[in-house]
Every structure is written in C-alpha cells, then in structure tokens.
Fold:
Amino acid sequence: MKLKIRTMALLELGAWISKRFENPRPSKRTAQHWCVSGAVPAKKIGNKWFVDTDAEQLETGNDLVDQVLRAS
Structure:
C-alpha cells in the first residue's frame, strides 16, 4: 500500500494578496472571506490565514472539475 503524501507550500494571506493581484487588490477582509468559504485553499493557524499555493495551482477554475481532482 502506497501512502500519498501531499506537501503544502503555505503563504501568509497578505503576502499572497500582494503576489497574486495587481492594483486594485482585494482587501484582506475579502480574501479572508474567500478562505472561510473555501474559494481559496487556505488554513487558519492561530489568528492568521495561510494560502496553500500548491493546491491553488492545481485548481482549474471549474468547480466540478476541481471537486473531482480533490477527490482523487
């Protein structure tokens, strides 16, 4: 039996916003809402949100396809 180990490259939410968006950038509160709703793959550690950049790269933008890919 092979174990599937997935690494996570976590980037603090503020740094992710700066790296991912040009002006106008979304507010940090808006990005936090995306994290809570699951629109952005993220984890909350303590009081800070961190975006899983590896998982974000695997997303296609199509919700159905993304669900299938996450399940496999």
In short: The chain has a mean pLDDT of 86.
